[in-house]
Description:
The protein is of the alpha/beta class. It has helices at residues 65-71, 91-94, 107-120, 144-153, 199-211, 244-247, 253-260, and strands at residues 3-12, 17-22, 33-38, 42-52, 55-61, 78-85, 98-104, 128-135, 155-160, 173-174, 192-196, 219-222, 238-239, 242-243, 250-252. The relative contact order is 0.14.
Amino acid sequence: MGRPAEILKIDRHTNAEMSFKLGAHIQGIPGQFVIVSLAQVGEIPISISGFSSTGVEITFRKVGKVTSELSHLKAGDELYLRGPYGKGFPLECFESQRLLVIAGGTGVAAIKPLVEYCLHDDKHKIKKLDVLLGFRSPKHILFRKELKRWEKNCGVVITVDTTEDETEAWAGGIGFVVDFVKHVSDIGPKTKVVIVGPPLMIKNTVRELIHHDVRDDNIWTSLERHMKCGVGKCGHCRIRDKYVCLDGPVFNYVEATSLID
Ligand SMILES: Cc1cc2nc3c(=O)[nH]c(=O)nc-3n(C[C@H](O)[C@H](O)[C@H](O)COP(=O)(O)OP(=O)(O)OC[C@H]3O[C@@H](n4cnc5c(N)ncnc54)[C@H](O)[C@@H]3O)c2cc1C
Ligand code: FES
């Protein structure tokens, strides 16, 4: 079941998405995940969306049994955590390189610690960082406070699929992230790219990146599979000879395509 972790703070981003700041000190790297347990309800994998001196942050979308129960918890309540698990982003490959990070919807939770690492770590400085994020509509935007901070320190493009039924005036892009790749400057064969989001978004965006001469072996993504143990024992996440919980969830795109075909 793991160790108990107190919910220190809850940030409600949208009707269905929220972040918990947890009083659990976990040393991990961006891209890793934890298994979150609720007694008598179940266990689910969730990416670590932030590391801080007070503990870790997780961010989830209410989609089913466990996430609905989680959404009813309050600050001061406890849940259980195991991890960190899995392989995170290959930080050494990004050192002194030009990096483009692309994410959609709750996928932004998985790339948030990577962007924060790149912006704060002077030793392994990234040459140039751009972040391209897509959300369903302005009211679905996550991490508004953090995005404002990122905008001061790197290139940030935010797009929404639609502004229909919105009361908020929207000055950003409208369309899918794939349509905004062309607005990012200096993309080429040496650009390293991280993409996290729905499979179709990843597929279309990779096609556009390759059109801009990005090499497919310079692209990494994070795969979501149903998981149980998180440690390579139960076989739930197995695709051929790979265990997504152990060998991933972050994979180089060349390997990822052979797994999801
Ligand atoms: C490595 C990893 C990291 C993840 N990180 C996050 C995160 O940061 N934030 C977040 O909101 N979610 C994340 N997920 C997905 C999350 O684990 C599922 O949303 C969660 O398991 C749903 O549990 P539930 O009991 O609420 O829903 P259930 O009652 O189990 O299912 C509700 C619906 O969601 C579908 N579903 C359940 N699990 C998945 C899944 N893994 N992929 C696709 N569809 C699924 C079911 O088929 C069903 O249709 C991650 C998954 C993995 C494998
Ligand atoms: S989740 Fe059990 S083997 Fe990966």
